[in-house]
Amino acid sequence: MSNRISRNISIILRSERLIAQRHLAVLRRQTGLMAMALVVSAVGLVMLNVAAFFALQEVMTAAAAALIVGVVNFLLAGLFVLLASSKSSIEEDINAVSEVRDMAIEDLEAEVRQAADEAKSAVDAVKSMAANPLGGIAPGVAASIAKAIVKAMKT
To answer: What keywords are annotated for this sequence in UniProt (predicted)?
Structure first.
């Protein structure tokens, strides 16, 4: 029983560690993509500012090109934000680990309940012996005395 308890505790701890590692990996990925979105947005903002300046200074040529570059940068930033906010893979990744952890917890709870029941039975037996010390011995002694009496009567 002790071996099963320690095994289940080990499984629970390993499962929790794997789940935490997966959450951290997703968080790192999202942080990196958000940082990229921030950089691209900053570049896009600078380019839009330059484009607006050129658009006011000249009627088209260089300003149109800068405007297009700025819009493309914002579209890329939006794409990075969408990629960073997708959470579909994390649930799929940790489902199996969570199931193993939950099974180990259930098994551990059953082991603890069984140990508690055995301890309660032992306590009840000790209480019973304390209340009636001859109660546990009496049936065996009575049988021996009865055999002795029967034997004595035959002879």
So the answer is: Membrane, Transmembrane, Transmembrane helix
Task: Kindly report, residue by residue over 114-148, the tens digit of the pLDDT.
Answer: 878 887 887 777 677 666 655 555 566 666 777 77
Q: What is the 3-state secondary structure (H, E, C) of 93-136?
A: HHHHHHHHHHHHHHHHHHHHHHHHHHHHHHHHHHHHHHHCCCCC
Angle (deg, nearest 10), helices 88-131 and 2-57: 150
Q: Domain residue spans in the chain?
A: 2-154
For 37-96, how does the pLDDT look when each residue is reduced to its tens digit (9 = 90+)?
889 888 887 877 677 667 666 666 676 777 776 777 788 888 888 888 876 666 776 777
**CA quadruple 60, 64, 65, 70: dihedral positive or negative?**
positive
Helix (H, G, I), strand (E, B) or coil at 31: helix
Distances (CA, A) of 102 to 16, 63, 81, 95, 98: 10, 61, 34, 10, 6
